[in-house]
Write the structure tokens for this entry.
Amino acid sequence: MRIPEVNYLAVFVAAVVIFLLGGLWYSPVLFAKRWIALQGRTEEQMRADAAASNMPVMYLLAFICSLIIAWAMAVLTNPFVPQTATSVPDWIFRGVKLGMFTWFGFVLPTSFATALFSKKPKALWLIDTGYNFVAFIIAGAIIMGWMGAGASAR
């Protein structure tokens, strides 16, 4: 069995971007108020929960999840490396397609089935899965774009 080639710097950068996107996505700038309301909670309740939680550990675990996503996507890129030279934008587009495909094949069906049985409001599911959709597309674009830049430099 061949060990897949992985650009760990690209994985780390993609993980940081996924993590930062989560911070922006669930902030008051984008969806925080709606996300909190759809959970039937108030901002005060969320702040109280945050105060009672070990937030540094939660952020660390969220970042580790981002690393796992980026690493898995990097491993999955190996079979999609083109045999002929292409431009960096072509590589980025391949990464976007990979992100969309992995989201559609893995995240969408599992999160939707979970939302169905948990009676989660569809709007809440859309906010959560929308974050994953954007994160997967960006991670795919970063990882494949980085591969393309390396291939173009050779």
Summary: DSSP finds six helices and no strands in the chain. The two ends are 26 Å apart (CA to CA).
